[in-house]
């Protein structure tokens, strides 16, 4: 099996490769020489492609796409032409223009884009009765201090990578939509800089959501934190249920990285459809983009 890692724009494909290398031959393409050097030092057996076209010419069985958000629509269009399964590292869009560009693509059923947390063992098996739910809340704790020093400035730029509201907020929205479905809209959002004044976006944020059923939801984003964790609370008439996702002894397992790659490999090996329908991903992206617009 051959898998192309098309782009190394964030930390995620480096993590993905640690699982993929146990299953497939890796081909890597990346525009930044330093990022590519870091990757090939860890994975010297990976074959390096000089361009995305060269990578796709290697006839891969699947593609993991991780390029800066403004480049996703064009790069994904080229991958779609190849017909192979594709995993687009989150978030697939961070602005209205980017989302509308994705809407113009013929995205097939073997395209997956998701927060890895959906596949975390602590969350993946959770089932709820939406009819019994009064409200839900997701709390995302993930430090963004690295951006304050200028690292990956495109991610922290609202019109490009979406900033903290989008890039970290996706985790909370993803988990709530996984539980309650895609019939959801944003009803309010706010962000602030409480600590990292050098950011281009915010280091704290909140979103208010409402599902068509009438259930309300809240996503809290805490980008100033010593510990990384994600908590979902489901409120019902007879009490509240809490689901906590933490890295544990093995972050690749605990945070869902391995589960995500296993879902991708099922698409590659078995021809399975994406476990997250694109319509659901589209609903999540619309909430995030709208939150970015109003803040």
Task: Provide the fold topology.
Blueprint: E1 2-6, H1 12-20, E2 25-29, H2 33-42, E3 47-48, H3 52-57, E4 62-65, H4 72-82, E5 86-89, H5 96-103, E6 111-114, H6 121-124, E7 133-141, H7 145-148, H8 153-156, H9 163-167, H10 169-180, E8 184-192, E9 204-211, E10 216-222, E11 229-236, E12 239-246, H11 251-254, H12 257-270, H13 278-294
Helix pairs in contact: 10-13
CATH fold assignment of the largest domain: Dihydrodipicolinate Reductase, domain 2
Q: Taking all residues together, what is the mean pLDDT?
A: 97
Helix percentage range: 25-40%
Any idea of the CATH class of the largest domain?
A: Alpha Beta
Instruction: Sketch the major β-sheet.
Output: 6 strands, parallel
DSSP strand tally: 12
Portion in beta strands? 15-25%
Number of domains: 2
> What count of helical segments does DSSP give?
13
Overall 3D form: globular
User: Separation of termini?
Assistant: 44 Å
Strand order, sheet with most strands: 3-2-1-4-5-6
Helix and strand element order:
EHEHEHEHEHEHEHHHHEEEEEHHH
CATH superfamily of the largest domain: Dihydrodipicolinate Reductase, domain 2
Assembly state = single chain
SS-derived structural category: alpha/beta
Label the CATH architecture of the largest domain.
2-Layer Sandwich
Instruction: List low-confidence stretches.
Output: none
């Amino acid at each position: 099996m051959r898998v192309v890692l098309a782009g190394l724009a964030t930390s995620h494909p480096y993590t993905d490769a640690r699982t993929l290398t146990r299953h497939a031959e890796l081909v890597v393409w990346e525009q930044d020489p330093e990022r590519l050097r870091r990757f090939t030092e860890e994975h010297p057996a990976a074959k390096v492609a000089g361009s995305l076209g060269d990578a796709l010419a290697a006839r891969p069985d699947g593609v993991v796409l991780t390029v800066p958000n403004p480049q996703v629509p064009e790069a994904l269009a080229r991958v779609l032409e190849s017909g192979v399964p594709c995993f687009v590292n989150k978030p697939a869009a961070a602005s209205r223009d980017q989302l509308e560009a994705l809407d113009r693509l013929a995205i097939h059923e073997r395209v997956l884009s998701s927060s890895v947390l959906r596949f975390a063992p602590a969350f993946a098996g959770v089932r709820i009765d939406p009819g019994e739910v009064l409200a839900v809340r997701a709390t995302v704790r993930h430090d963004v201090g690295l951006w304050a020093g200028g690292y990956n400035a495109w991610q922290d730029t609202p019109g490009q990578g979406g900033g903290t509201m989008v890039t970290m907020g996706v985790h909370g929205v993803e988990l709530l939509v996984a539980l309650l479905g895609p019939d959801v809209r944003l009803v309010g959002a706010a962000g602030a800089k409480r600590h990292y004044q050098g950011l281009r976006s915010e280091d704290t944020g909140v979103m208010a959501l409402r599902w068509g059923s009438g259930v309300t939801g809240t996503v809290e984003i805490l980008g100033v934190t010593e510990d990384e964790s994600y908590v979902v609370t489901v409120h019902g008439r007879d009490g509240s249920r809490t689901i906590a996702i933490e890295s544990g002894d093995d972050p690749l397992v605990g945070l869902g990285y391995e589960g995500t790659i296993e879902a991708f490999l099922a698409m590659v090996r078995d021809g399975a459809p994406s476990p997250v329908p694109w319509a659901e991903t589209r609903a999540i992206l619309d909430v995030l983009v709208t939150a970015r617009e109003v803040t």
